[in-house]
Amino acid sequence: MSKFGELVDLKIPVLLDFYTEANNASVAMHPVLRDVAAALGNKVKVIKIDIDKNSQLAEALRVKALPTLMIYKEGEMKWRQSGEQDAPTLIGLLKEYV
Questions:
Q1: What pLDDT was estimated at residue 3?
Q2: Domain definitions of the chain by residue range
Q3: Which residues pair with 34 in a beta bridge?
Q4: Alpha-carbon dihedral of residues 65, 82, 61, 6, nearest 10 degrees?
Q5: Which among 39, 46, 65, 83 would be 20 to 30 A from 91, CA to CA?
Q6: Which class for 16: exposed (0-12), middle (13-18), buried (19 or more C-beta within 10 A)?
Q7: Collapsing DSSP states into helix, strand and coil, what is residue 92?
């Protein structure tokens, strides 16, 4: 869990995507996240977290639906939503915290 703290305690916004390959909506988000990362470059960090491999973290953050997306900045959660999002929406949200 301390590694999680290090991941989200950055001066740039961190977009977390909690997913599993068994979930179609999660898989559909992969190209969207690539577009977001490409559009914003080193201004943000996009991290995909497979809940099958990180079940304790998902449980601690009460991830119930997939995909669940969160934006952190300097260790503080700024935004959270479950379900698919499009790239322009995510880019706009992240730009608020750049």
A1: 86
A2: 2-95
A3: none
A4: 130
A5: 65
A6: buried
A7: helix
